[in-house]
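Two folds, back to back.
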Amino acid sequence: MWCTLGRFSRTDFLRHFRSFSEARLDPVPCSTLFIKPEKYGTISKLGIDIAILDLQDSVPKEKKSEARRLISSVFCSEFSSGQEKIIIRLNELDALYELKNDIEAVLNYVYSNQIFGFMLPMIKNAEDIAKYQELIADVAKYKGFAKSPDYYIYPLIETTSAIEEVYKIAQASPYVKGMYFGNADLSTELGSKNSMKTLLYARQRLVMGSAANNIPAMDGPCTRIDSLIALESEAKQSKDMGFQGKIALHPKQLPIINKVFRPSGDDLKWANRIKKIISSDSSVYQAHDQSGREFIGPPHIKRAYKILSIKPMSVTPAEGESVSPRLIRRGAKAETINFFTTNSFQFEIPISEGLLANWDSLVFNTRRVGSNSGFAKKLGFRDRVVPNSLLMTLAASLAVTRLTESAKVHLEFKNAAYLRPVYPGDTISGYFRIISVSESLQGKNSVIGSQHFLKNQEGDVVYQLEKWTLFPKMDIPRFQSDFNSSDLNLPSFKNAFLSLDLSNISSTQPVEKISPNEVIIHSLPKVFGKSEVRSLSYLIKLTNPHHYDPVVYHQEEILVPGPFVIHASVGCASVDFGEIISEEITSCSNLLKVNLEDTLYSMTYVKSVEECKNPALEKLKLVTLGLKNVSIQSLLEESIPNALFDPENMHAAKINSICAHSIPLLINKIACITEYEILRLVTS
């Protein structure tokens, strides 16, 4: 039963935890190694849960007697402490003579607790388990023991019959404490390749049958002994499938197997946090600031206790001196925030042709002034002009290491202004200042407002914007700056276009008539590719790990940067507005997380259409929504509420409330909203 508020009390939590913690769990054999008798003395140093001494496949028929003698000598030696977990792989039922001799040779050591169980090969059904037990009981009686010994049974599931009967085999005896997968023999019987893919069904059957009977399933060995990469890949897939351990054929495979199947530091941290949560006033878990929250219920408690019951990897202290590492944490901290000075960006970025090409692959560019040097020079510029979208993104990304890398989430951009033209070859640096600090509505977080400025290599301010960001709660006072960027008397690049002589300039694109108050759905999609997003994040110094680190974050937690989403949505819309000369964003906000490989469409509301004093230009005031993974054909059949485009509703909860009442198709689909103005060329 999953936890839902109002149905699952704190008393229930504690009762469930006590029941799980008091339940007896047999040790889970994460790592199992086939070992030769002459190597018995090394077992204690190998860090394994179970060692298998083999009397079956690895021993030729003519050497079976010698193998039994060697095993007997091991248990009589000084190396046998009785603490090692040793099981014997017996011969199969079809080799009855050898099997009886096996049992006779080792039975004494079962009674002395030097052997704690048997691996039973070539099992076909539950009746085979009973036959093995009868043989062991008969030999015990023959040797004069008063009763049959106690021992663990580990069936080796390596036949097609056993795969189909696996549930009954797991139930065949209370002595069955786990089942191993025999991938090599099964693939031979099937005539198939011995791979994770071809034996997927068999593995799943074994895991399900084991889990249904509350015993562990252990995967068979990786036969590519020299490929630790292949071993780790197999082991991770096995663990994800539900296996709790794996067989090793060589000691060098053990560290990888133990690393994969034993609880990691993150696993133990999670399990201990679950224990802490269920004894507190909370029932919600959140791994990272960027990950979603989940309610904690009995399944989580059971999993947490299961993790804590598994022996973690043992670590031997290094010889000689050792050093404890530290992590340098970047971003704003309470003690580093200064309200009254400017803070320089850590990096500067040259505007290279490569960067511009990468940006044009992300954001659809319809501006000839930004792509055609000849056209730009004809308008009086030195070269083609770097797009507004890239500079706005740089104004945010260059502040990450000093400010927002420690943040939870970006909230909003406002008053972005392109002040002076920036050209390929320019070098961009800049600074930011804190303009406000406040608490979030519930008082659990801090909201920091900052103003960002970009400079070129001459020291001229070329771009500015204001940004609001949500941080974990900081112990700093509320603050509101009286600084106003208008006091700087900075120029407006947009005004330069309004005064240009464009009488001899014609648009190369169709000039579609645009009317106020209409909604336009744009058919051009943007798919965010993994390599594209990650490489561009590196290029522009966007160092937030949740944009590119698949080791720390699950795939669904790796996010496309907010500015990428905003500008991609505006870029996909721009293709329908003809030749855009200038673009200026008034405000924009990311409402929904967008992941790698998501598809973004755009929908625009036209607030107004105005003539300019320059008759070649027309000014459009627009609001564009970025739509995540939605069918635009379905939208054509809908009536779109105007409230979706109201900047006052620029919050996810408000937007989803509107959608729930008026257009359910868009619930949890509106990724961003951008209010902006464009100047477009209307002479054709």
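---
second:
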Amino acid sequence: MPAASCPRGRPHMPTYFRSYCSSSAGNCLALWTRDSSILIDCGVRTLRDTRALLQQHRARRGDLHGVLVTHSHGDHVSKAALRVLGEEEVVLHCHRDVARQLRDRHENLADTGVILQAFPDGSFTMGDFRVSAFALPHAPGIPTFGFAIRAGHGSDRRKIVVCTDFNDFSGVLPHLEDADFVFVEANHDIGLLRRHPNPNSRYHLNNVKTAWLLAHAVRDGRRPPNRVVLGHLSEERNTAELALDEVRRVFTIQRQAVAFRLQAAPRHEPSRTMKVV
């Protein structure tokens, strides 16, 4: 292998992503390298399904270095997942306020053996991943966080940004700078929301806002990401086609090229594996 692709003799270390599920009913994402893997949220509803997911993940991706938790809502960390993760001694990394809410919401949490590790204000390491958390504006009284995750070395170094469950993107823009891979919420279509009202939708990013967030990020950044995945699509109030078309529409208005791979994550099924490039 050429020396330029392996600075200081480091081996080539690609990073991979997969969404196991992404919807208002449950969310679980995975990142891994050859030597490390992490989950982002584990909102799987049943004990059986949680055990099956972890077994499948470990069989194919090796040791699990922990779960990053965005916030305390059950579609992101379920009661079943807390029990199974406790049984298997998997560490949950979350903000101290999220840990406090989980303890308050689940009275017998200590009995499950679950390990809640409050992450520091700065960046921290999980296996091959360097993680920085940033606050997101979500529902009142629900501390919520996105993550900027770095992996790899030298020419293999990649930045992955994951942000869902928020309703104002102004504070998110700086974190998208120089991202190679973006997983972002596109929760609902405004027209479908009018037909199927839901007061909780105000705490989530609609397709139009998601499209403008991406347009601003590309306009203001030095380079676009290589891939954008839209996630957390509402069951009744969105479709993949509507979300993707809105991004393309806004980029056309701005006379910007969609110079990245664009797709939507399946709601209930795993996505295909994607290499972060």
